[in-house]
Structure formats: C-alpha cells, structure tokens
Amino acid sequence: MKIAYTISGLFNTGGMENILIQKANYLADIYGYDVTIITTDQKNRDVFFPLSPKVKLVDLSINYCDYIGTKMWLYHRARLKRIHRRRLKEHLSSGGYDICISLMDFDFDFLHKIKDRSKKLLEYHFSRYSKALSTNHPILKIIQKCRTSLWKSSIKRYDRFIVLTDEDKTQWGALPNIEVIPNFINLPPAYIASQDSKKIISVGRLSYQKGFDMLLQAWKIAQPQIPDWELNIFGGGDKTQYSDYIKQNGLKNITLHDPTSSITDEYRRSAFYVMSSRYEGLPLVLLEAMSHGLPIVSFKCPCGPTDILKEDFGILVPRDNVIELADAIVRCAENKEWRKQASITAVRESGKYSKDEIMKRWNDLFHSLLNN
C-alpha cells in the first residue's frame, strides 16, 4: 500500500506533528507500507521528532509562512494556493498513491478535487469549535463559527473525515463520511500510583486554553482544606500572570515548573491529575496520566474528557466552574481508598489507546476504502 500525508511542516514540536510521525513510522516499519509525508514549508529544517528512514519526505517549497501576517497575505495566499495545487497534483498523479491524508492544512479545500487514483481523507486534531473557544471576542467567535460551517462543503467531498472523539463527531452534525479514531499513547510498563503521595499534578502550556488561571482560583479555595497537599504545574510559556496571582493571593504549596523531559517521574510522584482546560481536541495528557495510574479530576470541557473519563477513575465537573473544581480536588485528596481503586481502573482503560490498537483501526479503514 502506498500512502501520502500532507502537512505544512515537521519542524514544530506540536502534538499533531508527533502523532503524524509516529503513525508514518508505524505504517512503514510494522506494516511495511510505502509512506511519504508531503510538506509545503519545511525549508530544509530538521524534522523535530524521530523519523523512520523508511518514510520519505517531499517538500513542495510553497512557503506560506513567509507571508503570513503581511499586509498582502490574502493576495499571496491565493497565489500560493494555485502553485500548491499544481505541484501537489503533479506529485500525486505521478506517485501512484492508494491513500492521501490531509492534516487539514492549506490543501484541504482543494485536495479532494485532484483526480489521481488515491482515496482522500481528512484528519482534524482539534474540536469543531476550538477556534471559536480560543477567543473572548464575541465578533471573532461568530466569525470562527461561520468559518467552520463553511468548511463542511469541502469536508463532505472526502472519502473519510476523521475526528478524535465521539463528542466532536456530534458537533459536526450528520456528515455521511465522518468517523472517530482517537490518537494513541505510548504505554509505559504497568504502574499503580502511590497513594501515600500528597502531590497533585497538571501539565500543559501556560496559555488561555489550558485554564491554569481557573486552576489557581480553585486551589485558593481547596488548599486550606487540604493543607498538607501540594499542586505542581508543568508547562512552558509566560509565568507572569500566574506568579502574580499566587503572590497577590498568598497561595501556598503550589509550584510552577518549566517543562521537563522526565515527566514520567513526576507522574509517579503524584497521587492524581487535574485538568482545567477551556477546550481540547483529545487531551493526550489525560491518557498519559491514566497510563501512570493517576485518577483524574477534570472540567467537562469540549472535547475529550467526556469520551475518556468514567466515574470509577475520573471526576468530571461542569466546565469553567471553579468552585466545583475545588470541591472535586478536595474530595479526591481525602478519599484514599477511592484513589487506590481508581488507579487500577485508569491503567486498564488507558490500554484502549495503545498504539497497536489505534493503528489497527487505521489499517482496517484503509483496506475497507480500497476494497469498496
């Protein structure tokens, strides 16, 4: 089987790029397929994540990123799209691909129009309303919602449209070609969290999306009730507003850490995980925490927690409700016996997201499309 993926570049450190490379490696190394990743903006930069030597790279040298943010961006975008479509058509037509998968980048509105022999798929690594949820501006929210509605006319023309969660699938409505395949995690050796620990962990970028401002507000309420517990937040970004809030409110037993390459060790030092995100696509960090035996406390944000968490190892609270989040943190901290059982269940549930299980679903999908 000959498979092509299309994306802007592989130089970023993002989760989407990481998952794409791991999938390409798996398809090439385990299934023995001929896999190519086609980029537009790689510009001879190093691929950030380890790439199998069996996976081919082709850069079309479109270089949209040279013009993003300039005054003439819309003009250059239209001009570059014409070049992009021509070069991609030439490559696909001569490549003899069976499957071509777009990561919903600059090509998603025209890839389905290219008439080579390949089946065309879209992968979306976010939730439908993630762009609208990423802004507080009411006009921008409306604009972003209108944009995603307009996308549907192109999405319907693909052989399959893959989203990460059942919750997000319902948000897209009655699309005939939509299917759910979650991302995977690399499972560590089975480990049950030590419930003698009194450490709580949360991981993510210090950004509006991750809602750490709300987590600090919840900690202000919860910490006096569990004074011997501590909260550790690991993530990159500007710490200023969070550090200022901690100082101004005299918060205790809370530390903002830089990202660490040994996050596994931090999971194993912790008793449970808290997620305060305003929105997600599929929060892999929850799956990683579960695989390390951590019970979960999380906002019921779109999308992911509702799909992933069950009440025997996770506590879901209404989205953005700081008081409920504080209460859930306290209940989890005070119930050692529940945490012990939840730890065992969390590890078992995380197995559903193993690489072998998820890649089998992709392989089955490819074969079903080619046999139709």
Short description:
By secondary structure, this protein is α/β, with parallel strands linked by helices. The chain is built from 13 helices and 13 strands.
Description:
The chain has two domains: 2-183 and 355-370, Glycogen Phosphorylase B (Rossmann fold), CATH 3.40.50.2000; 199-353, 3-Layer(aba) Sandwich (Rossmann fold), CATH 3.40.50.2000. Helix 6 (212-222) packs across helix 11 (322-334) and helix 9 (284-291) crosses helix 12 (336-350). It has 372 residues and is of the alpha/beta class. Helices cover 40% and strands 16% of the residues. It has helices at 15-29, 73-95, 130-133, 138-155, 166-171, 212-222, 240-248, 263-268, 284-291, 305-308, 322-334, 336-350, 355-370, and strands spanning 2-7, 34-39, 56-59, 99-102, 119-123, 160-163, 178-180, 199-203, 230-234, 254-257, 272-275, 296-299, 314-317. The two termini are 15 Å apart. Strand 9 (230-234), helix 7 and strand 10 (254-257) form a beta-alpha-beta unit. The relative contact order is 0.11.
SSE topology sketch:
Elements: E1 2-7, H1 15-29, E2 34-39, E3 56-59, H2 73-95, E4 99-102, E5 119-123, H3 130-133, H4 138-155, E6 160-163, H5 166-171, E7 178-180, E8 199-203, H6 212-222, E9 230-234, H7 240-248, E10 254-257, H8 263-268, E11 272-275, H9 284-291, E12 296-299, H10 305-308, E13 314-317, H11 322-334, H12 336-350, H13 355-370
Parallel strand pairs: 1-2, 1-4, 2-3, 4-5, 5-6, 6-7, 8-9, 8-11, 9-10, 11-12, 12-13
